[in-house]
Amino acid sequence: QVQLRESGPGLVKPSQTLSLTCTVSGGSISTTGYYWSWLRQHPVKGLEWIGYIYYTGSTFNNPSLRSRLTISVDTSKNQFSLKLRSVTAADTAVYYCARRMTTGAFDIWGQGTLVTVSA
Amino acid sequence: DIHLTQSPSSLSASVGDTVTITCQASQDIRNYLNWYQQKPGKAPKLLIYDASDLQAGVPSRFSGSGSGTSFTLTINTLQPEDIATYYCQQYDDVLTFGGGTKVELK
């Protein structure tokens, strides 16, 4: 079955760029009808949708993060990635990658990775 | 953005009880509402999509209802493994989540 796994640094300095990669296994990222997504969970603010990408490269991002955000896909590696620029302590969260169905629901999630923004 | 208000924020119930969680949307979201269960240290798990459709593999004691601005998640015959935090999520507009309802054992 399809599985997702996040990877990347767990500590990022303020003003730098947070970079994470999600590796999809057990299925193809090019399967039609699925959108490959990033979400995060703050201890206080709760769950927040960051954005998602289709295998063709079309992206849909949360307007609140759009100016700092790049989501990309590498179909040859079955991976998609997140870059969030100019981070602050407010970006400290558990980051999840997930698969979004056409229904708008996230049916498969990665295990999550804690990213802390601190000097 | 569409705001989702869940109530209660927490509840205590006994094994075998029926538990009801509500999710109120700040505007009409038709049936574009999903429910998740999250246990500590784990990713959310999809339970219900499109307000009332049970995700494959989810026990039938979970059910969802509602449309427009008012939605309900019901757990019939609460089991110990149902102790978790539950979230609603809408996708009618920019995706947003409710604040969560923590279900504990009495």
In this structure, how is the largest beta sheet of chain B organized? Answer: 7 strands, mixed
Tell me, what's the shape of chain B?
globular
Helix/strand/pairing class of chain A, anyone? mainly beta
Order of helices and strands of chain B: EEEEEEEEEEE
- Series of secondary-structure elements of chain A, N-terminal to C-terminal: EEEEEEEEEEE
Low-confidence stretches of chain B: none
Helix content of chain A: under 10%
Mean pLDDT of chain A: 96
Multimerization state: heterodimer
Q: How many DSSP E strands of chain B?
A: 11
Helix content of chain B: under 10%
What structural category characterises the helix and strand content of chain B? mainly beta
Taking the alpha carbons of the first and last residues of chain B, their distance comes to 36 Å
Number of DSSP helices of chain A? Answer: 0
- Tell me which protein chains meet in the greatest interface and how many residues each side has: A-B, 18 and 21 residues
The radius of gyration computed from the alpha-carbon positions of chain B, rounded to a whole number of angstroms, is 13 Å
Strand content of chain B: over 45%
- Tally of contiguous helical segments of chain B: 0
Please describe the topology of this protein.
The complex is a heterodimer of chains A (119) and B (106).
Chain A: E1 3-7, E2 11-12, E3 18-25, E4 35-42, E5 46-53, E6 59-61, E7 69-74, E8 79-84, E9 93-100, E10 106-109, E11 113-117
Parallel strand pairs in A: 2-11
Antiparallel strand pairs in A: 1-3, 3-8, 4-5, 4-9, 5-6, 7-8, 9-10, 9-11
Chain B: E1 4-7, E2 10-13, E3 19-25, E4 33-38, E5 45-49, E6 53-54, E7 62-67, E8 70-75, E9 84-90, E10 96-97, E11 101-105
